[in-house]
User: What shape does this take?
Amino acid sequence: MSPIQFGIIMLINLGIGLCTPPVGNALFVSSAIGKVTIEKEAKELIPLFVGMIVALFLVTYIPSITMFIPNLFGVK
Assistant: This one.
């Protein structure tokens, strides 16, 4: 695995962790700003969570998606 691919996978995982309960700090902040309960907000975000997981799997298991642009610049 390329260090570039590892970094991208790590960033996607951290982004997912920032938005998902029970520790999702971004979820708590956005629910406070919108004056909505966390439960209601989490239910509405389920399709986005599924999309983030699918994107993570694609980037993890198909390295050409991640490495397309670095390969254009000759980075291996």
Remarks:
- Residues 3-19 form the longest helix (17 residues).
- Helices lie at 3-19, 25-34, 38-44, 46-61, 63-72.
